Amino acid sequence: MIQFKNISKHFELKGQTVTALDQINLDIPDGCIFGIIGYSGAGKSTLIRLINLLERPSQGQIFINDKDFTALNARELRQERTNIGMIFQHFNLLQTKTVSENIEIPLKLLGVAKAERKKRLAELLDFIDLKHKKDAYPDELSGGQKQRVGIARALTNHPKILLCDEATSALDPQTTQSVLDLLKKINKEQGITIVMVTHEMDVIEKVCDYVAVMEHGKVIESGRTLDLFSQPQHSTTKTFIQTVLQQQLPVNILNNLENKNHNSIYSLQFLGTSAQETVVQAAIKQFDVSLNILFANMTEIDGSVIGQMFIQLLGNTAEIEKAIAFFEQHGVKVEQPGVQA
Fold it and tell me: For the CA atoms of the chain, what is the radius of gyration?
Protein backbone atom coordinates (compact mmCIF):
# COMPACT_ATOMS: atom_id res chain seq x y z
CA MET A 1 0.00 0.00 0.00
CA ILE A 2 1.08 3.55 -0.77
CA GLN A 3 0.23 6.00 2.01
CA PHE A 4 0.47 9.78 2.09
CA LYS A 5 0.39 11.07 5.66
CA ASN A 6 -0.09 14.80 6.27
CA ILE A 7 1.78 15.66 3.07
CA SER A 8 2.36 19.29 2.14
CA LYS A 9 4.60 20.74 -0.56
CA HIS A 10 5.65 24.38 -0.80
CA PHE A 11 7.60 26.17 -3.53
CA GLU A 12 9.29 29.54 -3.49
CA LEU A 13 8.24 31.62 -6.49
CA LYS A 14 9.33 35.23 -6.98
CA GLY A 15 9.86 35.69 -3.28
CA GLN A 16 6.51 34.17 -2.33
CA THR A 17 5.63 30.77 -0.88
CA VAL A 18 3.26 28.76 -3.07
CA THR A 19 1.47 25.75 -1.57
CA ALA A 20 1.22 23.01 -4.20
CA LEU A 21 -0.05 20.32 -1.81
CA ASP A 22 -1.91 21.00 1.41
CA GLN A 23 -2.21 18.33 4.12
CA ILE A 24 -2.78 15.31 1.87
CA ASN A 25 -3.85 12.05 3.52
CA LEU A 26 -4.47 9.26 1.03
CA ASP A 27 -4.15 5.46 0.83
CA ILE A 28 -3.59 3.61 -2.46
CA PRO A 29 -4.30 -0.16 -2.17
CA ASP A 30 -1.91 -2.73 -3.62
CA GLY A 31 -2.71 -4.19 -7.03
CA CYS A 32 -5.25 -1.58 -8.10
CA ILE A 33 -5.40 1.07 -10.81
CA PHE A 34 -5.71 4.35 -8.94
CA GLY A 35 -6.61 7.56 -10.76
CA ILE A 36 -5.78 11.08 -9.62
CA ILE A 37 -7.83 13.69 -11.46
CA GLY A 38 -7.97 17.46 -11.31
CA TYR A 39 -7.73 20.58 -13.39
CA SER A 40 -4.41 22.18 -14.31
CA GLY A 41 -2.64 23.41 -11.20
CA ALA A 42 -4.54 21.11 -8.82
CA GLY A 43 -1.29 19.49 -7.66
CA LYS A 44 -1.81 16.03 -9.12
CA SER A 45 1.53 15.77 -10.97
CA THR A 46 3.39 17.03 -7.90
CA LEU A 47 1.64 14.36 -5.83
CA ILE A 48 2.56 11.47 -8.11
CA ARG A 49 6.21 12.62 -8.25
CA LEU A 50 6.37 12.34 -4.48
CA ILE A 51 5.85 8.57 -4.66
CA ASN A 52 9.35 7.98 -6.01
CA LEU A 53 10.63 11.20 -4.40
CA LEU A 54 11.40 12.99 -7.64
CA GLU A 55 9.89 15.74 -5.50
CA ARG A 56 10.35 15.76 -1.74
CA PRO A 57 7.52 16.84 0.55
CA SER A 58 7.95 19.96 2.65
CA GLN A 59 6.28 18.06 5.47
CA GLY A 60 4.67 14.69 6.07
CA GLN A 61 5.59 11.10 5.30
CA ILE A 62 5.20 8.70 2.37
CA PHE A 63 4.98 5.00 3.18
CA ILE A 64 5.17 2.16 0.67
CA ASN A 65 4.43 -1.22 2.21
CA ASP A 66 5.00 0.29 5.67
CA LYS A 67 8.44 1.65 4.74
CA ASP A 68 8.92 5.39 5.25
CA PHE A 69 10.42 6.57 1.96
CA THR A 70 11.05 10.05 3.33
CA ALA A 71 13.47 8.53 5.88
CA LEU A 72 15.60 6.58 3.37
CA ASN A 73 19.19 7.56 2.66
CA ALA A 74 20.40 8.04 -0.93
CA ARG A 75 21.60 4.44 -1.38
CA GLU A 76 18.40 2.96 0.06
CA LEU A 77 16.26 5.24 -2.10
CA ARG A 78 18.11 4.23 -5.28
CA GLN A 79 17.42 0.59 -4.46
CA GLU A 80 13.72 1.16 -3.74
CA ARG A 81 13.27 3.17 -6.93
CA THR A 82 14.05 0.06 -8.98
CA ASN A 83 10.61 -1.17 -7.87
CA ILE A 84 8.88 1.90 -9.33
CA GLY A 85 8.49 2.54 -13.07
CA MET A 86 7.26 5.80 -14.58
CA ILE A 87 5.83 6.87 -17.92
CA PHE A 88 5.30 10.41 -19.11
CA GLN A 89 3.03 12.47 -21.34
CA HIS A 90 5.75 13.23 -23.90
CA PHE A 91 7.37 9.77 -23.88
CA ASN A 92 10.93 11.01 -23.03
CA LEU A 93 12.63 8.72 -25.54
CA LEU A 94 16.19 9.36 -26.68
CA GLN A 95 15.93 10.36 -30.34
CA THR A 96 19.35 8.94 -31.26
CA LYS A 97 18.54 5.50 -29.83
CA THR A 98 16.48 2.73 -31.42
CA VAL A 99 13.41 1.20 -29.80
CA SER A 100 15.54 -1.65 -28.44
CA GLU A 101 18.22 0.70 -27.14
CA ASN A 102 15.67 2.92 -25.40
CA ILE A 103 14.10 -0.04 -23.64
CA GLU A 104 17.49 -1.39 -22.55
CA ILE A 105 18.66 1.85 -20.90
CA PRO A 106 17.54 1.01 -17.32
CA LEU A 107 19.08 -2.45 -17.55
CA LYS A 108 22.42 -1.04 -18.71
CA LEU A 109 22.42 1.50 -15.90
CA LEU A 110 21.96 -1.34 -13.41
CA GLY A 111 24.79 -3.33 -14.97
CA VAL A 112 22.62 -6.25 -16.11
CA ALA A 113 24.56 -8.75 -18.22
CA LYS A 114 24.07 -8.57 -22.00
CA ALA A 115 22.46 -12.02 -22.30
CA GLU A 116 19.93 -11.17 -19.60
CA ARG A 117 19.24 -7.79 -21.21
CA LYS A 118 18.51 -9.39 -24.58
CA LYS A 119 16.19 -11.92 -22.97
CA ARG A 120 14.22 -9.22 -21.15
CA LEU A 121 14.15 -7.04 -24.28
CA ALA A 122 12.63 -9.86 -26.32
CA GLU A 123 9.95 -10.40 -23.65
CA LEU A 124 9.02 -6.73 -23.59
CA LEU A 125 8.98 -6.25 -27.37
CA ASP A 126 6.61 -9.19 -27.61
CA PHE A 127 4.45 -7.86 -24.76
CA ILE A 128 3.99 -4.42 -26.36
CA ASP A 129 3.68 -5.94 -29.86
CA LEU A 130 6.56 -3.95 -31.38
CA LYS A 131 9.03 -6.66 -32.39
CA HIS A 132 8.79 -5.39 -35.95
CA LYS A 133 9.92 -1.92 -34.79
CA LYS A 134 12.87 -2.95 -32.63
CA ASP A 135 15.42 -1.18 -34.86
CA ALA A 136 13.30 1.90 -35.57
CA TYR A 137 14.05 5.34 -34.16
CA PRO A 138 11.48 7.44 -32.25
CA ASP A 139 10.79 9.76 -35.20
CA GLU A 140 9.67 6.70 -37.19
CA LEU A 141 7.00 5.80 -34.63
CA SER A 142 3.43 6.95 -34.05
CA GLY A 143 2.48 8.55 -30.74
CA GLY A 144 0.93 5.33 -29.50
CA GLN A 145 4.01 3.31 -30.44
CA LYS A 146 6.25 5.80 -28.63
CA GLN A 147 4.16 5.45 -25.49
CA ARG A 148 4.34 1.66 -25.73
CA VAL A 149 8.13 1.93 -25.83
CA GLY A 150 7.96 4.19 -22.78
CA ILE A 151 5.81 1.61 -21.00
CA ALA A 152 8.21 -1.21 -21.91
CA ARG A 153 11.16 0.81 -20.62
CA ALA A 154 9.30 1.40 -17.35
CA LEU A 155 8.70 -2.36 -16.98
CA THR A 156 12.28 -3.52 -17.54
CA ASN A 157 13.09 -4.03 -13.84
CA HIS A 158 9.83 -5.85 -13.00
CA PRO A 159 8.48 -2.94 -10.93
CA LYS A 160 5.77 -3.32 -8.32
CA ILE A 161 4.41 0.18 -8.97
CA LEU A 162 3.89 2.01 -12.27
CA LEU A 163 3.38 5.79 -12.26
CA CYS A 164 1.63 7.34 -15.27
CA ASP A 165 1.75 11.14 -15.51
CA GLU A 166 -0.81 12.22 -18.16
CA ALA A 167 0.28 9.20 -20.20
CA THR A 168 -2.57 9.46 -22.73
CA SER A 169 -3.27 13.20 -22.95
CA ALA A 170 -1.11 13.65 -26.07
CA LEU A 171 -2.83 10.79 -27.92
CA ASP A 172 -5.92 10.57 -30.11
CA PRO A 173 -8.96 8.67 -28.71
CA GLN A 174 -8.31 5.40 -30.56
CA THR A 175 -4.65 5.32 -29.53
CA THR A 176 -5.60 6.29 -25.99
CA GLN A 177 -7.87 3.26 -25.78
CA SER A 178 -5.10 0.92 -26.96
CA VAL A 179 -2.70 2.30 -24.34
CA LEU A 180 -5.35 1.98 -21.62
CA ASP A 181 -5.98 -1.62 -22.69
CA LEU A 182 -2.25 -2.30 -22.34
CA LEU A 183 -2.18 -0.76 -18.85
CA LYS A 184 -5.17 -2.88 -17.80
CA LYS A 185 -3.36 -5.96 -19.12
CA ILE A 186 -0.25 -5.05 -17.11
CA ASN A 187 -2.31 -4.61 -13.96
CA LYS A 188 -4.27 -7.84 -14.44
CA GLU A 189 -1.47 -10.14 -15.57
CA GLN A 190 1.41 -8.78 -13.51
CA GLY A 191 -0.40 -7.44 -10.46
CA ILE A 192 1.37 -4.10 -10.70
CA THR A 193 -0.16 -1.18 -8.81
CA ILE A 194 -0.77 1.61 -11.33
CA VAL A 195 -1.16 5.23 -10.24
CA MET A 196 -2.27 7.50 -13.05
CA VAL A 197 -2.67 11.26 -13.22
CA THR A 198 -5.18 12.62 -15.73
CA HIS A 199 -7.56 15.49 -16.38
CA GLU A 200 -9.89 13.25 -18.43
CA MET A 201 -12.77 11.60 -16.60
CA ASP A 202 -13.33 9.07 -19.37
CA VAL A 203 -9.85 7.66 -18.62
CA ILE A 204 -10.90 7.21 -14.99
CA GLU A 205 -14.16 5.60 -16.12
CA LYS A 206 -12.46 3.08 -18.40
CA VAL A 207 -9.66 1.71 -16.22
CA CYS A 208 -9.56 2.93 -12.62
CA ASP A 209 -10.67 0.96 -9.56
CA TYR A 210 -10.23 3.97 -7.27
CA VAL A 211 -10.02 7.71 -7.82
CA ALA A 212 -8.99 10.82 -5.91
CA VAL A 213 -10.24 14.23 -7.04
CA MET A 214 -7.87 17.15 -6.42
CA GLU A 215 -8.43 20.89 -6.31
CA HIS A 216 -6.10 23.68 -5.13
CA GLY A 217 -3.60 21.22 -3.67
CA LYS A 218 -6.16 19.24 -1.67
CA VAL A 219 -7.86 15.87 -2.13
CA ILE A 220 -11.50 16.92 -2.04
CA GLU A 221 -13.01 13.46 -2.60
CA SER A 222 -11.73 9.90 -2.98
CA GLY A 223 -13.00 6.34 -3.04
CA ARG A 224 -14.00 3.54 -5.38
CA THR A 225 -14.67 4.82 -8.87
CA LEU A 226 -18.19 3.39 -8.95
CA ASP A 227 -19.07 5.13 -5.68
CA LEU A 228 -17.85 8.51 -6.89
CA PHE A 229 -19.73 8.17 -10.17
CA SER A 230 -22.97 7.09 -8.51
CA GLN A 231 -22.81 9.37 -5.45
CA PRO A 232 -20.49 12.34 -6.02
CA GLN A 233 -20.40 14.80 -3.13
CA HIS A 234 -18.27 17.73 -4.27
CA SER A 235 -19.29 20.14 -7.03
CA THR A 236 -15.95 19.66 -8.84
CA THR A 237 -16.44 15.89 -8.87
CA LYS A 238 -19.94 16.38 -10.28
CA THR A 239 -18.55 18.62 -13.01
CA PHE A 240 -16.02 15.97 -14.05
CA ILE A 241 -18.70 13.27 -14.05
CA GLN A 242 -20.91 15.36 -16.32
CA THR A 243 -18.29 14.87 -19.05
CA VAL A 244 -19.05 11.13 -18.99
CA LEU A 245 -22.62 10.71 -17.71
CA GLN A 246 -25.46 12.64 -19.31
CA GLN A 247 -26.64 15.08 -16.63
CA GLN A 248 -28.91 17.30 -18.72
CA LEU A 249 -31.68 16.60 -21.20
CA PRO A 250 -30.74 17.69 -24.74
CA VAL A 251 -32.87 20.68 -25.72
CA ASN A 252 -33.94 19.09 -29.02
CA ILE A 253 -35.71 16.31 -27.08
CA LEU A 254 -37.55 18.86 -24.95
CA ASN A 255 -38.58 20.82 -28.05
CA ASN A 256 -40.27 17.73 -29.49
CA LEU A 257 -42.47 17.20 -26.42
CA GLU A 258 -46.13 18.16 -26.48
CA ASN A 259 -45.89 19.21 -22.83
CA LYS A 260 -42.71 21.25 -22.41
CA ASN A 261 -43.04 21.78 -18.64
CA HIS A 262 -39.48 21.48 -17.26
CA ASN A 263 -40.81 20.58 -13.82
CA SER A 264 -42.30 17.35 -15.16
CA ILE A 265 -38.90 16.00 -16.24
CA TYR A 266 -36.79 13.81 -13.94
CA SER A 267 -33.42 12.11 -14.15
CA LEU A 268 -33.24 8.55 -12.78
CA GLN A 269 -29.92 6.88 -12.00
CA PHE A 270 -29.76 3.12 -11.43
CA LEU A 271 -27.11 0.54 -10.66
CA GLY A 272 -27.73 -2.33 -13.08
CA THR A 273 -29.91 -2.47 -16.18
CA SER A 274 -32.28 -5.18 -14.92
CA ALA A 275 -33.15 -3.04 -11.87
CA GLN A 276 -33.84 -0.13 -14.19
CA GLU A 277 -36.38 -2.03 -16.27
CA THR A 278 -38.09 -3.70 -13.29
CA VAL A 279 -38.54 -0.53 -11.21
CA VAL A 280 -39.86 1.55 -14.11
CA GLN A 281 -42.35 -1.12 -15.14
CA ALA A 282 -43.55 -1.49 -11.55
CA ALA A 283 -44.07 2.27 -11.21
CA ILE A 284 -46.12 2.42 -14.42
CA LYS A 285 -48.42 -0.34 -13.12
CA GLN A 286 -48.72 0.90 -9.55
CA PHE A 287 -49.31 4.64 -9.88
CA ASP A 288 -51.82 6.73 -11.78
CA VAL A 289 -49.23 8.70 -13.73
CA SER A 290 -48.18 9.03 -17.33
CA LEU A 291 -44.50 8.03 -17.56
CA ASN A 292 -42.67 8.73 -20.81
CA ILE A 293 -39.04 7.66 -21.28
CA LEU A 294 -37.27 10.49 -23.10
CA PHE A 295 -33.65 9.36 -23.13
CA ALA A 296 -31.61 6.49 -21.65
CA ASN A 297 -28.03 5.27 -21.68
CA MET A 298 -25.69 2.95 -19.79
CA THR A 299 -22.08 3.30 -18.66
CA GLU A 300 -19.92 0.44 -17.38
CA ILE A 301 -17.66 1.43 -14.48
CA ASP A 302 -15.44 -0.92 -12.50
CA GLY A 303 -17.41 -3.94 -13.68
CA SER A 304 -20.83 -2.49 -12.82
CA VAL A 305 -23.38 -0.72 -14.98
CA ILE A 306 -24.78 2.71 -14.17
CA GLY A 307 -28.05 3.34 -15.97
CA GLN A 308 -29.23 6.88 -16.66
CA MET A 309 -32.79 7.64 -17.73
CA PHE A 310 -34.70 10.85 -18.35
CA ILE A 311 -38.45 10.58 -17.94
CA GLN A 312 -41.48 12.85 -18.05
CA LEU A 313 -43.98 12.29 -15.25
CA LEU A 314 -47.46 13.71 -15.76
CA GLY A 315 -50.44 13.40 -13.43
CA ASN A 316 -51.71 14.81 -10.17
CA THR A 317 -49.11 15.96 -7.66
CA ALA A 318 -49.88 13.31 -5.04
CA GLU A 319 -49.43 10.41 -7.49
CA ILE A 320 -46.21 11.90 -8.87
CA GLU A 321 -44.82 12.25 -5.34
CA LYS A 322 -45.72 8.62 -4.62
CA ALA A 323 -43.94 7.47 -7.78
CA ILE A 324 -40.81 9.45 -6.89
CA ALA A 325 -40.82 8.04 -3.36
CA PHE A 326 -41.19 4.54 -4.86
CA PHE A 327 -38.12 5.06 -7.04
CA GLU A 328 -36.06 6.30 -4.11
CA GLN A 329 -37.17 3.39 -1.91
CA HIS A 330 -35.75 1.06 -4.56
CA GLY A 331 -32.34 2.73 -4.59
CA VAL A 332 -32.94 4.98 -7.59
CA LYS A 333 -31.38 8.43 -7.49
CA VAL A 334 -34.01 10.96 -8.61
CA GLU A 335 -33.19 14.52 -9.64
CA GLN A 336 -34.72 17.27 -11.72
CA PRO A 337 -32.05 18.03 -14.34
CA GLY A 338 -31.35 21.14 -16.32
CA VAL A 339 -31.72 21.34 -20.07
CA GLN A 340 -28.66 21.16 -22.30
CA ALA A 341 -28.46 23.99 -24.82
Answer: 24
